[in-house]
Design brief:
Elements: H1 3-6, H2 12-25, H3 37-48, H4 66-81, H5 86-90, E1 92-95, E2 98-101, H6 113-118, E3 133-137, H7 143-151, E4 156-161, H8 164-176, E5 183-187, E6 199-204, H9 211-215, H10 237-245, E7 250-259, H11 264-270, E8 277-279, E9 288-292, H12 293-296
Parallel strand pairs: 3-4, 3-6, 4-5, 6-7
Antiparallel strand pairs: 1-2, 7-9, 8-9
Helix pairs in contact: 2-3, 2-4, 3-4
Length: 298
């Protein structure tokens, strides 16, 4: 669309309509915070104009300044032309009402495990106050570690990642949430460099995308670190190591909560003898499983 036509866009309503039209025409992929063109356009517009993120309606007929319009259109262009996920454009992502800083060193926070943590893992955790040590493996931005610390107020939380770059982002998020005394980052390849500890809870959102799916990922996901997504031929490369080693790091009665995305059939094929409890969230049925130490090390 050429410059002169842009001058026809006066209000937030105009910009919203234009953005949604452009998003739909460009066949963008959503899944990094919002799942449709309208919500994403609203988020980008409100963020650009420094308005509260949940109050579009009162401002719809307000006019924007030329420089505000240009700022928004530049953002749209990067979203459309380069398929950059919105969170990388704004430098932030929201999960369970909490803001996390993000950049391309980490995958964008979106794990449905966050929903279970917001509920204190009820009914599986009887008393959130009694959870003492929690491990978040493959922590990325540190989002699940932070949410775990908030869910279990007396817990010490270890946040582990193989990527030092990711841990730089995680450290920022831990500090921003005021939890630096309770959440500690460790650079480790799963458990390999981790001091011995008996955790009452391990949560893990590992790289689990199988090779075939990796090859067919929408462009948006290619902006994320491959290391955080790719799970090998059947997506289970890391999961095999994890399930093998986890019992040594779980307290008696300790639990592992593991996300495997769309790899349900690959998980069942790889571990036919395990009988996990499948935990459902608002949008998922068979993507998160729970296993006890006793199930993993009979």
């Amino acid at each position: 669309m050429h410059e002169t036509a842009h001058h026809e866009l006066f209000t937030l309503r105009d910009l919203m309509r234009y953005a949604v039209s452009q998003f739909n025409a460009s066949r963008l992929s959503f899944g990094h915070g919002s799942d449709n063109a309208w919500d994403e356009a609203a988020y980008l517009l409100l963020h650009t104009l420094h308005l509260p993120l949940d109050t579009l309606d009162p401002f719809l007929d307000a006019r924007v300044l030329p420089e505000e319009r240009e700022r928004f259109l530049k953002l749209l262009e990067r979203r459309i032309t380069d398929h950059v996920p919105a969170a990388y454009l704004t430098g932030e992502a929201w999960l369970q009402g909490h803001r996390f800083v993000v950049d391309p060193r980490v995958i964008i926070p979106r794990s449905p495990i966050s929903e279970l943590l917001a509920d204190g893992l009820s009914p599986w955790v009887a008393d959130p106050d009694e959870v003492d040590f929690v491990l978040d493996l493959c922590t990325g931005s540190g989002c699940l570690a932070v949410l775990a610390a908030l869910a279990f107020p007396n817990a010490q939380v270890d946040a582990v990642d193989i990527s030092e770059h990711a841990l730089e982002v995680a450290d920022q998020n831990i500090e921003l949430s005021g939890l630096d005394g309770r959440v500690t980052t460790h650079c480790s390849d799963l458990f390999d460099q981790l001091p011995q500890c008996e955790y009452s809870l391990i949560v893990c959102n590992p790289p689990y995308v199988n090779n075939h799916s990796m090859e067919n990922l929408p462009q948006e996901y290619r902006h994320e670190p491959t290391l955080a997504l790719a799970g090998g031929e059947d997506g289970m490369d890391l999961v095999r190591r994890l399930l093998d080693q986890a019992p040594d790091f779980l307290a008696p009665g300790g639990m592992l909560v593991l996300e495997i995305g769309n790899e349900y059939s690959n998980f069942i094929a790889a571990f036919p003898d395990l009988e996990p409890v499948w935990l459902s969230t608002e949008n998922t049925e068979d993507q998160i499983l729970l296993l006890t130490r006793e199930q993993l090390a009979p």
